[in-house]
Amino acid sequence: MALLFLKSVVLPHRTGHKYTPLPIHATDSLSSNEKHQSSTVETVHISPRLISDATIGLSDGLTVPFALTAGLSALGDSHVVIYGGLAELIAGAISMGLGGYLGARGEADACAAKLAETREIVKGSSSRAKMLIGEAFEGFEIRRQIIDAFAQDLQGNDERTVDFLMKFRWQLAETDFVASRAYVSGLTISGGYLFGGLVPLLPYLFLESVEQAFIGSLLVMMVALFAFGWVKTALIGERDRWTCGKNGVQMVVLGSVAAGAAMLSVKALSG
């Protein structure tokens, strides 16, 4: 029984039968509106990796260009602030995008290499594959005879064994490291940096006074950082407003610290 349960959890059967839900009786306390909202929430799914890439791009875009423009505003010349901010924004977006692409491409190459290595192990050394299967269950306090029986049954299919080892021994899902993911990662980070960096730069384009533009940029940046922290937290499934607000305030504090450090550095260097 334990072996059958283990197989049903780790390797669920993929049959063509359609899932039939249990009938809902008229006494169900949920209203039709609540059911519709529940089904809507369950169907919405945003890739955690996409959120991570957008967070990297937007957070750096909202803080780094603002810190630079805030530091340059201490010189009192709006043209220097605009040109310096635009130059940093373009260069930063390209650099961040390339970094995201190369990082994701490296992960995809590493996953492909591990996949090839795992296939060689499964094909050439059944004892080594059996040992790796057992290592996947370390810490779960499962009896050895159950693991051995499971490994013996699993090793009847090489592709299934490779799939198991990739997911549960190496924690690598092949679909998460496809080559096209590198392009998506690079574009997401670069686009987020470019969009986020334009936000604190806009007041300098419309206000003549550097002092007024700096105050406007500061206010816009604080609102944008707070909104970004709130939305980012909500997208990962958090429904508590207090937690969302706390993360928004955290983003504002981090951005303010970066801007203050930049301004102090420029003032110290300019005497």
Automatic annotation (TrEMBL):
It holds the Pfam family VIT1. GO terms for molecular function: manganese ion transmembrane transporter activity. It is a multi-pass membrane protein. One of its GO terms (cellular component) is endomembrane system. The chain crosses the membrane at residues 182-207, 213-231, 251-270. Its main location: membrane. The keyword Transmembrane applies. Keywords: Membrane, Transmembrane, Transmembrane helix. InterPro entries: Ccc1_fam (IPR008217). It is found in: Endomembrane system. GO terms for biological process: intracellular manganese ion homeostasis. Belongs to the CCC1 family. This is Protein CCC1.
